Amino acid sequence: MKKLSLFFTLLFAASTVFFSCNPSEELTTKQVPTEVLDNLVRLGFDVKDIAPMRFDEGYLVEGDIYLTDHDLSSMKTGKRVPVVEQYSTNNLVTGTPRNITVYISSSSYSATYLAAVDEMNNRFNALNLGLTFTRVTSASGATVSFSKLTKSQERQGILGSSGFPTSSGNPFNVIKMSSILESTYHLTVNGIATIMAHEMGHCIGFRHTDYYNRAISCGGSTSNEGAGSTGANLIPGTPSTATLSAKSWMLACTDGGDRPFNNDDKTALNYLY
After folding, report:
1. What is the pLDDT of residues 36-76, one digit of tens each?
2. Mean pLDDT computed over 247-273
3. How confident is the model at residue 217 (pLDDT cuts 50, 70, 90)?
4. Global pTM?
5. Interatomic CA distance for residues 139 and 260, integer angstroms
């Protein structure tokens, strides 16, 4: 999300929008080695409109995707794909039916965040997918855990981050979330749940709905994130174009409001799981 304190340049990543997953536009590539930038371009990732940045033990790419040096070294050169709406990565969660246990610390996050996790889980579970989601009270053995961003990362405007499923078919196991979405950005339970569901969408293998043109939700000039070796595969039964008005939960940018799954989101989720 860009300059969330002024307006939401959406999510997921949006006419006034904010990146549901994205850092502020002040972020630069100064800490990212040239060879890493060159490799990201080769792999098909966008490094121009959303500058990569150092993040934990790796890099935050395209606003909310966490990649390590090992991830980058194991990827193959990416390729562009046709313009279509719903996309999945090459790696998906396997072993369905499968229950994904979700942990969020009550000592690190407010009751609003815990309620937002429950709302996120309810949205997925209402679809009767092969994946179910359950909030647990212990981090031990949890499939996906929420972790706080550092204050430094929050000051850079980062709202959340996650990654894609592993090659062994497990969901990405950590969602990092800002703890000031309620206090600073005044988001409600449903607004926070929308951002959480977006990040969980990445964890189970979804790319941004407007992957091929982030300007649809984020504004500005046309920007294609690139398929990369991660993949951006058309999900059958979804529309040929993405629109801001459809309010997909996986649009690259958000206005901070409530975006439950639309009919096309449901089609995509039911197709994959």
Report:
1. 887 777 766 767 667 888 888 888 887 777 888 887 777 65
2. 89
3. low
4. 0.73
5. 27
Give the CA distances from residue 62 to residues 26, 112, 130, 136, 166, in Å, rounded to whole numbers and listed in that order.
Answer: 14, 27, 29, 30, 19
CA distance 4 to 198: 17
Q: Looking at the DSSP assignment, which residues form a beta bridge with residue 135?
A: 102
At 18-34, the pLDDT tens digits run 445 544 334 444 578 88
Q: Which two tokens stand for residue 138?
A: 């212990």
Find the Cα–Cα–Cα–Cα dihedral 55, 173, 21, 5, rounded to 10°: -80
* CA–CA dist 26, 92 (Å, integer): 33
Contact in structure between 133 and 172 (CB atoms under 8 Å): no
Do strands 58-61 and 65-67 pair parallel, antiparallel, or not at all (unpaired)?
A: antiparallel
Q: What angle do CA 86, 24, 198 make, to 5 degrees?
A: 30
Beta bridge partners of 18: 254
Phi, psi angles (nearest 5°) of residue 11: -60, 170
